[in-house]
Amino acid sequence: MKKYRLPILMLVIFETVAVTLWLTKDNLFYLFNFSYIGLAISLGVFLFIRKYKYARRIVQLLVGLYMLIYLGLICKENMQIEGFWYYLFTGVFEAATIHYAVAKIFGPLIFGRGWCGYACWTAMVLDFLPYKEPKEPGKKLGWIRYITFVLSLIFVSALFLAGVGNLERIMFWAFVVGNILYYVIGIALAFAFKDNRAFCKYICPITVFLKPMSYFSLIRIKCDKEKCVSCGKCKRVCPMNVDVTDNSRKRQNGTECILCMECVKNCPKNAL
Ligand code: SF4
Ligand code: SF4
Ligand code: SF4
Question: Which residues contact 202 (CB under 8 A, 6 or more apart)?
Answer without folding.
Answer: 139, 141, 142, 144, 145, 189
